[in-house]
Design brief:
Helix content is about 30%, strand content about 20%. By secondary structure, the chain is α+β, with helices and mostly antiparallel strands. It is globular and about 70 Å long. The strands form four sheets. It has a seven-stranded antiparallel β-sheet, sandwiched between helices. Strands 5-6-10-8-9 form a five-stranded antiparallel β-sheet. A four-stranded mixed β-sheet has the order 1-2-4-3. Bound molecules: flavin-adenine dinucleotide.
């Protein structure tokens, strides 16, 4: 290690700086106690799944936008890659760092700066956990509409960077539709403040949309203005058993129509998910018989119970519902959701689970799942599949077990999952982003013209490719490796 080397004026042309020099420069920007190295790095996990020790040259924890700007400008000037990290709950490997990267954690930028009740907006720093944003809105009788299983750890910045979906997309849309304004720092350190708080603003290009869903490859999100909604007075939840997928589609139509826009979740589960959950001993099957499909339905409105019961009765009369249980309390509703959200149960059943997040038209889902199962069994005779998803959004989550969980297994299984989507014009990334895991399959979903334009935008905003390189797209030039 060359401890003599110092930051040169000309930066990148003088060769990569050594680790001590980088640590010293970063410490000058954020304070020495906020640059972590060695065991303080490896003690953290690097994402889901599998959970492995974080590899990064160091973790830097800025407190302000100015510090983010200074540290990005420094790293860019010397050509070191920076990987933005929120709660590291992303499911596509977007926050994974190599041992030569600087991990930029937003964990100290975690304050809620303002809640404007009259205008139903909240101004937050990027590192605030999603659950805290939800709670702050609730305390004022309002709702932040994004909700997902990782709510306790996922940050608002991470959910914006991945354009997260979750359980209420059907009614409120994805994260993109909840963000009014953003503050972003570009790779070279330039701060773009676009902290709009109005619902309508058509003055030129809507730049924030470029950064939403860009997975930390175009800029670091430091603050956001998010939109809040009126909080529905009550929520009614039911679990339905259905005999056929056609019945499931009929039930969706009927409940959507009969609840007057109050349907907020429609989560379909194939029976293997219920089996896996029950096998843990943590849950019991809420219905007395096994069904071909299960649907978790949530209606949110002042008279949610009546609306749901009316719609269910109508669907029952049509013969589309084989059995159903309506939650009589919040605890019962929580128990139904716990079955759907028990991802460790799926991992335990599939040992290990290879998970995929895809989009396709709901009408094609049944035949897609059947074809997928057949193809998997042809290649791996012991393959097992657990399918569930936000089907009203056209989104399926497919967890597959073939007895191996390494990159080669993920790639081989991924090829089968994704190639079947091509004729359906489906998407390889419904809501979890592309990250590392789906980069090689982008052409299933996007045209070459689209991919080329994405590359041009990336190259324009990050010419040295120092911001989360290798994620979403493969772009030259590669940032240079830190000498460690
Ligand atoms: C149990 C479980 C359930 C989940 N359910 C859902 C679900 O229903 N729907 C869904 O959409 N997702 C779901 N997810 C995935 C995950 O929670 C989301 O992707 C979430 O948005 C990631 O937030 P994070 O703060 O953990 O981001 P990270 O995992 O830390 O980062 C994700 C990506 O965003 C980038 N990034 C993070 N912060 C910033 C920032 N401030 N500026 C720029 N880039 C940044 C990272 O570089 C990375 O590319 C689930 C995950 C788990 C573990």
């Amino acid at each position: 290690m060359n401890t003599e080397q110092s930051l040169s004026e000309s930066g990148i042309d003088e060769g990569p700086p050594s680790m001590p020099v980088v640590l010293e420069q970063l410490a000058r920007i954020v304070g020495a106690q906020h640059v972590l190295a060695g065991q303080d790095v490896s003690a953290r996990f690097d994402g889901w799944p599998p959970i492995t020790a974080l590899q990064a040259a160091c973790i830097v924890r800025p407190r302000t936008t100015e510090e983010v700007s200074a540290l990005l400008a420094y790293c860019d000037s010397v050509g070191i890659a920076v990987v933005p990290q929120g709660g590291r709950t992303g499911l596509s490997g977007g926050a994974r760092a190599r041992e030569v990267d600087v991990a930029l954690s937003l964990e100290r930028m975690s304050s809620i700066q303002a809640l404007d009740r009259d205008n139903a907006t909240m101004t937050v720093e990027a590192g605030v956990p999603l659950a805290l944003v939800q709670q702050a809105a609730e305390a004022e009788g309002l709702l932040y509409a994004v909700d997902l299983g990782a709510r306790g750890s996922a940050t608002i910045g991470g959910t914006i960077a991945t354009n997260a979906g979750g359980n209420r997309v059907l009614r409120y849309g994805m994260t993109r539709e909840q963000v009014l304004g953003l503050e972003v720092v570009l790779a070279g350190g330039e701060v773009i403040s676009s902290m709009n708080s109005m619902l309508k603003n058509n003055a030129g290009y809507d730049l924030k949309q470029l950064f939403i869903g860009s997975e930390g490859t175009l800029g670091v999100i430091t603050r956001a203005v998010v939109r809040l909604r009126p909080r529905p007075a009550t929520t009614a939840t039911a679990l339905i058993g259905a005999r056929t997928f056609t019945d499931v589609l009929h039930v969706r139509e009927r409940i959507a129509a009969d609840t007057d826009g109050a349907l907020s979740s429609f989560e379909v589960m194939w029976p293997e998910l219920i089996d896996a959950a029950v096998a843990t001993g943590r849950h019991r099957d809420p219905l007395s018989e096994r069904h071909a499909y299960y649907v978790l339905v949530e209606v949110a409105a002042r008279d949610a119970d009546q609306r749901l019961e009316r719609a269910l009765a109508a669907a029952w009369q049509e013969g589309w519902v084989a059995d159903a249980v309506v939650a009589a309390s919040e605890a019962q509703a929580g128990a139904l959701w716990a079955i759907r959200e028990d991802s460790p149960a799926r991992s335990a059943a599939l040992r290990p689970a290879l998970s995929f997040d895809i989009s396709l038209p709901p009408s094609a889902m049944e035949s897609y799942v059947e074809a997928l199962r057949q193809q998997l069994l042809r290649q791996w005779t012991h393959a097992r599949t657990i399918v569930f998803g936000h089907i009203a959004d056209g989104n399926l989550h497919v967890s597959i077990g073939i007895g191996q969980g390494d990159e080669a297994a993920r790639s081989a299984v991924g090829r089968v999952v994704y190639e079947l989507l091509r004729p359906l014009r489906g998407s390889v990334a419904a809501e979890h982003g592309v990250g590392l895991f789906k980069r090689e399959y982008m052409d299933v979903t996007r045209t070459m013209a689209e991919i080329d334009l994405m590359r041009s935008i990336k190259t324009h905003l990050d010419p040295r490719n120092t911001l989360n390189p290798g994620k979403v797209l493969d772009v030259a030039p590669a940032s240079r490796d830190l000498a460690i």
